[in-house]
Amino acid sequence: YDWSNLFYNAGADSGSLKVVFGSNVKSIPGNLFYVKSDENYVRITTVVMSNAVEKVGESAFGNCQNLENVTWGKSIKNIGKSAFANCIRLKSVTIPETVTEIGAYSFYNCKLLSSVYYNARNCSDCYEWAQNFYNAGADSNSLKVEFGSKVKVIPAYLFYVDADYNYGDGVYAHITSVKMSNSIQDIGASAFDRCYDLKTV
């Protein structure tokens, strides 16, 4: 539950907190490491998933503000809603080729994000209200997005955030450049809509 606070303030006095998921783990439970606090959040710095993991539950790593490194397994299919929301020190994200669904707000407010490598082959479209990368890259010098060699379709609304730069809304996805592979055949509706910092494609 989002009030469980299972690992409340865990790792506060350690230099780093590494989480490793074993070979029998298929699903990472929702809210597992989520703590709704800016002072007593879980101090996870590194996450390593085994090849068995297929799903990251809703808000599983939400508000893990020290998280910097995530290693995915080879079977991940579902990245749950708000799974990495408010991971403000996360600098790099890879969307593995096996991913078929990216939940709403999944990388919400990842302000230091500087690179996204997207390699999902059969990912479904995102919803208009999903705002997966809300305020992503706001505190980085640039946010570069690259699509892998197996990607044929860029999902609709992937980087769309309902913001209006003209009215002072600075919470859009701060993408500065996009690099597409030769395999890209279709760019979904509003995939990069309102990416106001985008300069090169």
Overview of this structure, please?
By secondary structure, this protein is mostly beta strands. The chain has no helices and 13 strands. The termini are far apart.
Quick one: overall form?
globular
Strand content range:
15-25%
Q: Portion of residues in helices?
A: under 10%
Could you give the order of strands across the largest sheet? 2-4-6-8
| Alpha-carbon Rg, integer | 16 Å
Straight-line N-to-C gap:
41 Å
Q: How many extended strands? A: 13
In N-to-C order, the SSE pattern is EEEEEEEEEEEEE
Number of helices: 0
Structural class: mainly beta
Q: Stretches where pLDDT falls below 50 for ≥5 residues? A: none
Mean pLDDT metric: 97
Largest sheet: 4 strands, parallel
Task: Compose a concise summary of this entry.
This protein is mostly beta strands and 201 residues long. 0% of the residues lie in helices and 18% in strands.
List keywords for this structure.
201 residues; mainly beta; four-stranded parallel beta sheet; 13 strands; 18% strand
What secondary-structure arrangement, pairings included, does this model have?
Blueprint: E1 18-20, E2 27-28, E3 46-48, E4 55-56, E5 69-71, E6 78-79, E7 92-95, E8 101-102, E9 115-118, E10 144-147, E11 153-154, E12 177-179, E13 186-187
Parallel strand pairs: 1-3, 2-4, 3-5, 4-6, 6-8, 7-9, 9-10, 10-12, 11-13
